[in-house]
Design brief:
The chain is α/β, with parallel strands linked by helices. The chain has helices spanning 4-12, 28-34, 67-73, 84-87, 114-117, 137-144; strands at 17-21, 42-50, 53-60, 64-65, 80-81, 110-113, 121-125, 131-136, 147-149, 152-153.
Length: 154
Amino acid sequence: MVARKLKAFLDRNGVKYTVIDHAPAYTAPEAAALAHVSGRDFAKTVIVLFAGEMAMVVLPANRKIVLSDLQEMFADRTLRLATEKEFMDQFPDCELGAMPPFGNLYGLPVYVARSLAEEPMIAFNAGTHREIIKMSFNDFDQLVQPAVLDFATL
């Protein structure tokens, strides 16, 4: 079932979205393939720690995060990927590893890769490993107001 907070937020804001059910998938590329969504349109959510705080980094499933670029952008050489144990309690209505890119609903700042922001549509895990939400990037941008940065590579 789609994460409660996310569904309520999207419905309250009158956003058009589609829920796509698929077989269980545990990686972003696998989920994108099962849902027949391009890897450049499928957002994978990564949690990082910097300056002692958690943040959500969102990039296309077909790209890789470049931690050294993020460390340079934030002038924090200690920036690192958070462990599942460190962030699992932050998303009580989501399955571990299936968090939607709506950090604003979970008290986290959101940073989106420019390459994803240039796509008309965005798809992402809906809080489970069996459901994806697909919606316009413009709606996502208006609701989340993420910072758009260049930090991903092929």
